[in-house]
Amino acid sequence: MEIDPFIFRFSIFILAIFVGYYVVWSVTPSLHTPLMSVTNAISSVIIVGAIIAALAGSSENIFEISSIFGFLAIVLAAVNIFGGFLVTQRMLQMYKKKKKNK
Amino acid sequence: MISANLSAIFYLVSGILFILALRGLSSPETSRQGNLFGILGMIIAITVTFLTVGNFSTSTIYVFIFLLIGGAIGAFIAFKIPMTAMPELVAGFHSLVGLAAVFVAISAFKNPEAFNLGFPGDIKLASLIEMSIGAAVGAITFSGSIIAFLKLRGIMSGSPITFPGQHIVNLLIGISIFVLIYFLCSSQSESFFWSMIAISFLIGVLLIIPIGGADMPVVISMLNSYSGWAAAGIGFTLENTALIITGALVGSSGAILSYIMCKGMNRSFFSVILGGFGGDSSVSKDKKKDQKPVKSGNAEDAAFLLKNASSVIIVPGYGMAVAQAQHALREMVDTLKKNDIKVSYAVHPVAGRMPGHMNVLLAEANVPYDEVFELDDINNDFANTDVAFVIGANDVTNPVAKTDPQSPIFGMPVLDVEKCKSVLFVKRSLSPGYAGVDNELFYRENTMMLFADAKKMTEDIVKNI
Q1: Which pLDDT score, from 0 to 100, does residue B276 have?
Q2: Contact flag A73-B221 (C-beta cutoff 8 Å)
């Protein structure tokens, strides 16, 4: 009997939860805010679904109902991707070590 | 056009890069590199998606246009936003992830052929369940984050909104979502799909309105977690590894943060979610205690105390964020350091309105991160310290949490500021903190209250040193 591909994806999902668990516990508490903004940015990888939906429109009718939602989702996710990564970068730039000579 | 197997491998690569992005945050040294890994992962995922779909038509141009519009808005916000507004920014971003998940689910429902999920009216059962869950969680994330945003921004009152029978209503609505998903799966009817989404938006609002302002660290973390689960739900629908991995990572990350925040308040997750904490129940108690003598001082007195100390610990709280006093505070510390006074900062896990809020503000004011300590690392040092300078914090210093089992905050880990030789409290008034509990520290012999705006007081102290 063959294994349903869903089981494979489910295995990946469960393993990723464990990876996430251990990785996030090792994040230093002082970086919890950047952690939230960067997780925000990466969860916007949902944009791949939006792109597929947006490109699915036929050439005569680019804006049919499903592709319109795709385009809207692209805008939302793009705000998050650019906003999330850039604001994280901006925050991380501020974390500096004590200067030795002081 | 590239093969499905090849693109699956690339999605795996971007998933791994996202793991490395989080891994980088284990220290500020590696964090910037981690962020670059994250960006690289995102670029790979997007590029592969274009290559997999393959047909470059006019739609592609529109996709780029919309991508750039969103990107420009995002970049503009990222550069303009003041660091004090970070909690509401994060809440706002969560709402976008949630709404995007809902939109993608709608697209998949309307045009399942594009995603290989079957045909309209005949969508594969598993896919239908997955997209329903993704859409429902996404909708809850969206409306919940909007409420959190409004509360954090101060547009909506931060106090809990409760009504009788609230939990029963929420429970019934929650159950009805599952019932609707069941009917949707058996009938494939569109009206069930739309009503399921509408009800999920409603429950998101109802879930967050009873939760008060200072419980926001938990709420934001929880919504962070939800946005991850929504992404994972959509990831299963689209059979996309990058999305599944990311959803799982973000979901568990948010869950862990919620746990840390709850522990920082010694509250169970459920008591926070059920809400209603921090009302006006203790008004009568205050009146009694107002009679007690309070020693208050001015900037000159405070400067005198600080100047003669040899070690000082700063305890920042939400009040510092509100007054934007972090830069003035840094200046004060610089002046103290010039007088050879040892200064460090003590940050409580739930200080502020989101995890790590104080750390970001101090970092913004150029405070080196190795002078900032977590509760467990610094709590023993208060006994050997001359002055504790509490700026805008209250409940997290209240010794009642250690002594009075009747107190609502009993058992909450607190900073032992009372062990210092003297304590300076910068505060606007004697009013109790969020928990509605009077802080007995205010009335102690070695406490001096500095009633003023945190920023102005700090500036005045600098002048007087």
Answers
A1: 63
A2: no
pLDDT at A10 over 90: yes
Q: Are B312 and B387 in contact (CB under 8 A)?
A: yes
- On whether the CB atoms of residues B140 and B199 are closer than 8 A, the answer is no
What residues pair up with B314 in beta bridges, in sequence order? Answer: B345, B389
Whether residue B120 has pLDDT greater than 90: no
Predicted-complex ipTM score:
0.93
Asked whether the beta carbons of B63 and A71 are under 8 A apart, the reply is yes
Average per-residue pLDDT for chain B? 87
Say yes or no for a CB contact (<8 Å) between A98 and B371.
Answer: yes
Interface of B with A in 139-198 (CB under 8 A): none
Alpha helices (runs of H) in B188-282, residue ranges in sequence order: 190-208, 216-238, 241-265, 269-274
Are B310 and B342 in contact by the 8 Å Cβ rule? The answer is yes
Token pair for B251: 């979901």
Query: What digits encode the pLDDT tens for the residues B169-182?
Result: 888 998 999 999 99
Terminal Cα-to-Cα distance of chain B (whole angstroms): 70
Beta strands at B342-347 and B311-316: parallel, antiparallel or unpaired = parallel
B212 contact partners, CB below 8 Å, separation of at least 6: B158, B159, B160, B275, B276, B277, B278, B279, B434
Answer whether residue B286 shows pLDDT above 60: no
Q: Which residue type, as a one-letter code, is found at position A94?
A: M
Candidates A79, A86, A99, A102, partner chain B, best to mutate (most B CBs within 10 A): A79
**3-class SS of residue B373:** strand
Report the pLDDT value the prediction gives residue B282, as an integer from 0 to 100: 39
CB B250 within 8 A of CB A39: yes
Interchain CB contacts (distance < 8 Å): A and B: 383
pLDDT for B280 = 40
Phi-psi region of B356 (alpha: psi -120 to 50; beta: other; left: phi over 0): left
Residue B345: closest CA among chain A residues belongs to which residue?
Answer: A30
